[in-house]
Amino acid sequence: MKSFTYDRATSAAGAAAAVARAPGAMFLAGGTNLLDLMKLEIATPTQLIDVQDLKLDRIETTPDGGLRIGAFVSNTALSAHAVVRRDYGVLTRAIQAGASGQLRNKATTAGNLLQRTRCPYFYDTNMPCNKRKPGSGCPAIGGCSRQLAVVGGSDQCIATYPGDMAQAMRVLDATIETVKPDGTTRAIPIADFHRLPGAAPDRDNVLEHGELVTAVTLPAPMGGRHFYRKVRDRASYAFALVSVAAVIQEDGTGRVSFGGVAPRPWRVEAAEAALPQGAAAVTRRAFADAKPTDDNRFKMTLATRTLAAVIAQAKAERP
Ligand SMILES: Cc1cc2nc3c(=O)[nH]c(=O)nc-3n(C[C@H](O)[C@H](O)[C@H](O)COP(=O)(O)OP(=O)(O)OC[C@H]3O[C@@H](n4cnc5c(N)ncnc54)[C@H](O)[C@@H]3O)c2cc1C
Ligand code: SF4
Hints:
Strand content: 15-25%
Helix content: 25-40%
Bound molecules: flavin-adenine dinucleotide, iron/sulfur cluster
Low-confidence stretches: none
Oligomer: single chain
Distance between the termini: 56 Å
Mean pLDDT: 97
Shape: globular
Order of helices and strands: EHEHEEEHHHHHHEEEEEEHHH
Structural class: alpha+beta
Number of helices: 11
């Protein structure tokens, strides 16, 4: 691990300004992703600004009946919160499908949204990787791509976004609140938060250097039945090959986001309009532009079957 300095921020704007001042500075939250990347020297920050004292660990209701989740709320606290369990069940289920109990105790809301890909080449510093070092190449293309994206990739990168919580946040139409280094704030719809790789795969999201996530807000509950189904190689401690976050209403309409298939949570609103016609009708549209490899073509069938299981469960649970 390369040497670095460590400071604890005392205000959100101060944290943002401190990171912005140094090109090599980064925020530290639970550290469960960042410290792993530092040990492998994939991330080499010169300065860590710890955000644990910023009092961003509260969950509050909003005047319009929604929920405001502090950026530092742990995954455990969020998934166990009574209002989340009652009104945003897809979020509780998605979080609990991720990592392990110990990791969820440390992992935070912002850190989870900002975790980096699990592409095996990204983690192997003996190999080139455009996401680690732009312009160095992408050995996954033409290499081992079983875990990687079937849709949304580019000729620079076909990594997937690995997280579970963001799939639920996408279905719930969450908004990400930030403070910039100049003290101004912005609200970013989650649909616009994670980037597709295009020609700049090193940039996973639209945050500026030094922009601090302060909270995630959810609109008022939308009712319906909430599902998160994750298919993976083993029952725990594994990232999704394919996952489905869904909210299905009594009449069969609803929302669906796919995980494990793309560089960001994959929700295609025009495709979910086909939910009453069944899973195949949805995935035909959601994956219309897919470019699977021979290694990961199976994800297309898996996505259809996983969604079919969700739809069947929704029907079976109707009163
Ligand atoms: C063995 C293992 C298994 C796992 N399995 C799963 C899984 O199945 N599903 C899943 O979803 N996740 C899984 N994870 C990932 C885990 O959920 C993430 O590591 C965790 O959520 C990251 O949160 P953190 O608070 O520890 O972030 P950190 O590691 O502290 O930070 C992550 C990134 O976010 C940035 N950051 C943190 N807070 C802010 C902020 N407020 N504003 C701006 N930037 C910020 C940091 O600078 C860093 O770049 C697994 C992790 C491990 C180690
Ligand atoms: S898919 Fe992306 S993360 Fe994986 S090796 Fe290629 S450039 Fe790197």
